[in-house]
Design a protein that fits this description.
GO terms for molecular function: iron-sulfur cluster binding; metal ion binding. The chain is of the alpha+beta class and about 70 residues long. It has helices at about 20-25, 55-60; strands spanning about 5-10, 30-35, 40-45, 65-70. The chain is elongated and about 40 Å long.
């Protein structure tokens, strides 16, 4: 599936629940080996994101911002 947008992750808001990992249809999110300032591991984005917004929908901490590409 072609990319429909781009994803921005606010790593400092993340509490490491991993709901986004489970929700990601193409499986392009993994948990980082690093931690944020509050001590939580956060998701990292790898190539293949389709911009589907599944991660944004399930995230209880509003970590994700999905910006859609103009399709015109």
């Amino acid at each position: 599936m072609a990319a429909r947008g781009t994803l921005v992750i606010d790593t400092e808001r993340c509490k490491g629940c991993e709901l986004c990992i489970a929700a990601c249809p193409p499986g392009v999110l993994t948990m980082s080996g690093e931690v944020n300032e509050t001590g939580y591991r956060y998701p990292e984005l790898h190539d293949g994101c389709t911009g589907c917004t599944a991660c944004q929908i399930v995230c209880p901490d509003a970590v994700f911002a999905v910006y859609r590409f103009d399709q015109t």
